Amino acid sequence: MKRADSYGKIENCDVLLNYQRTQFSLFPEEPGARDHKEVQNMNKYELAVVVSAKIEDDARAAVIEKVKEMITRFGGNVTDVDEWGKRRFAYEIQKMKEGFYYFVHFESDASVPGEIEQRIRIMDNVLRYLCVRQEA
């Protein structure tokens, strides 16, 4: 190596550029030790959906099937669907006094509830919805 010039550069630095760092271990590596699978942290959620009582039974079932399909499309796993049936509201919602209540239990990662809520918000026959994370 030569001496640095007035600007602090090293004129001949081939030794520094060709240096490669090697990893050294005292223990031999096990086969497949570097094949790490990404582990997703699946949280449990409960989605409450209130569907309009003015629509037919088939249309109500189609709304819940669409919600279940959305959950699975975004990588969630539907574990249970509870149908509470027709219940009276505490106050009128869109000039309606009653609606059908459904509770969908599912497991997914943290990004799925936001995606589902974004799409449920624009569904016509869904009056109210609420998605909460359940304690483990």
From TrEMBL:
Binds together with bS18 to 16S ribosomal RNA. Keywords: Ribonucleoprotein, Ribosomal protein, RNA-binding, rRNA-binding. Belongs to the bacterial ribosomal protein bS6 family. Pfam families: Ribosomal_S6. The keyword Zinc does not apply. The keyword Ubl conjugation does not apply. The lineage of its organism: Bacteria, Bacillati, Bacillota, Clostridia, Lachnospirales. HAMAP family: Ribosomal_bS6. Signal peptide: none annotated. One of its GO terms (biological process) is translation. This is Small ribosomal subunit protein bS6. It comes from the Bacteria. One of its GO terms (cellular component) is ribosome. InterPro entries: Ribosomal_bS6, Ribosomal_bS6_sf, Ribosomal_S6_plastid/chlpt, Transl_elong_EF1B/ribsomal_bS6. GO terms for molecular function: small ribosomal subunit rRNA binding; structural constituent of ribosome. SUPFAM superfamilies: Ribosomal protein S6.
